[in-house]
Design brief:
It comes from Halomonas alimentaria. By secondary structure, this protein is an all-alpha fold. It is built from 6 helices and no strands. α5 packs antiparallel against α6.
């Protein structure tokens, strides 16, 4: 396994500033960035900054791709009149779970302190549990909504069928079909 990149040893505020500079320069100018880091008191080679920048660029492009996919998914869901089945929430939950998994993997790579990594992992776990609760709540709401709509439809159909002179047995049979009762 190759040695850990020294950029990961930078203080968080310096590494964040480096990330911002990398993104704003289009992931170019590694010599200047290495010189800037040296001005900040951190001697890191241009090659190390370049390797770190390339990894960050891949993550950045992947994240931007995910944002585009999410935006398109939201547009597609909005194009459908409503999302009674909760497809948008489910899709969002899956994407967030995917991101949390990526964060967990990145934390394991970047964090040397096991206690700190365990604390961060606890936060990720709580976030996953919250996503699960939201998803289950939405599915329960969708079931209740479908049942309410079916009851209203059955009542409306019952009135219309009674006005048409249908027998009580036929009306009850059709109501059971609408409500999904065997």
């Amino acid at each position: 396994m190759p040695p850990r990149n020294k950029v990961y040893d930078l203080p968080p505020e310096i590494r964040e500033a480096l990330n911002e500079r990398l993104v704003s320069t289009g992931f170019q100018g590694y010599e200047e960035l290495a010189a800037w880091l040296e001005e900040q008191g951190h001697k890191i080679s241009k090659s190390s900054v370049h390797r770190y920048g390339q990894d960050l660029r891949e993550e950045f492009e992947e994240a931007m791709g995910d944002v585009r996919k999410t935006t398109e998914l939201a547009r597609a869901m909005a194009a459908q009149d409503d999302d009674e089945s909760g497809h948008l929430i489910d899709a969002t939950a899956r994407m967030v779970q995917d991101q949390l998994l990526r964060i967990t993997i990145a934390m394991r790579k970047a964090e040397e302190d096991p206690a700190k990594a365990a604390k961060q992992l606890g936060s990720v776990t709580r976030a996953l549990a919250e996503i699960g609760r939201v998803s289950l709540g939405q599915k329960k709401w969708a079931r209740e909504l479908r049942l309410e709509v079916a009851k209203e439809a059955a009542e409306a159909a019952e009135g219309a069928m009674a006005n048409q002179g249908m027998s009580r047995e036929a009306i009850d049979s059709i109501k059971r079909d609408i409500l999904g009762i065997a």
